[in-house]
Design a protein that fits this description.
alpha/beta, eight-stranded mixed β-sheet, 7 helices
């Protein structure tokens, strides 16, 4: 799979991003990194985000760089298994819907009752399994990431992933395939423990035909293109090009 696209990037619209750069500067960095297709997926805030206005702002800047394919997406939190921070109608204007589950550092997200490896692994799986059954979701971002629990316990990524069986993976994959939901290959794959622990799941996804997105999860200019730091790991999975996820652009009114 060619690493020429990246659909997980944050502008200053996200609270957790630096405010010393612009969308235009990010696009210029993306162009310099060799991307032909990119997407912005800022966090959704129920009390302040105007999806249609956001899409228009991305479209306006993208119009100045017609040589690049630019999409306006959104990253939504799963608050507890099966329940997102926004419904399908609210998210209609976006080109694609990416879901993070779970962002345990978000105070609105239900946390595990205990922070033992077994409970964390089960909680993560419950979130992901319910997410795979939501048909308007397009991408699962940073799957099986336990770093947001690191403030509570020392996280052994490999030990946590060892809690899952091939049957567990297949049950999750069944839902992903049914609803055509892609799995993100995240910049964290540059970390050896994350890459090693996720390899069995990713290889299982490849063998069964799950689609994949790429995401640097950039929150500042220096992170743009960080997914490319994991190039060797990603290329080792030998993912065919036809399993690459690409959004469908919607117009400013939110209709395809």
């Amino acid at each position: 799979m060619k690493l020429t696209f990246d659909y997980h990037n944050h502008t200053p619209f996200s609270h957790c991003s630096k405010k010393d750069y612009t969308i235009d500067e990010m696009l210029q960095r993306m162009r310099a990194a060799g991307y032909g297709s990119v997407g912005f997926s800022d966090h959704y805030y129920a009390d302040e985000t105007d999806p249609a206005a956001y899409v228009r702002s991305i479209r306006a800047v993208a119009a100045t760089m017609p040589d690049m394919e630019v999409f306006a997406g959104v990253e939504v939190d799963m608050l507890w298994p099966g329940h997102l921070g926004a419904d399908a109608k609210t998210l209609t204007p976006y080109d694609y819907v990416a879901v993070a589950c779970p962002h345990w550092h978000n105070p609105h997200v239900a946390r595990p009752v205990r922070y033992t490896p077994e409970v964390l692994a089960q909680a993560q799986y419950d979130y992901l399994l319910s997410l795979a059954e939501i048909p308007f979701v397009d991408v699962v971002v940073h799957p099986f990431t336990f770093y947001s629990a690191a403030g509570y316990i020392p996280v052994d990524q490999q030990a946590l992933m060892a809690c899952y069986t091939t049957e567990d993976f297949d049950r999750l994959i069944d839902g992903l395939i049914k609803n055509r939901i892609a799995i993100e290959l995240h910049a964290n794959l540059k970390k050896p423990d994350y890459a090693l622990s996720l390899s069995p799941f990713i290889r299982r996804c490849v063998s069964r035909g799950v689609h994949f997105s790429l995401g640097s999860d950039a929150h500042e200019l220096r992170w743009v293109g960080s997914i490319l730091d994991a190039r060797d790991v990603i290329e080792s999975f030998q993912i065919p090009d036809d399993l690459a996820f690409h959004p469908e652009k919607r117009n400013d009114a939110g209709t395809v």
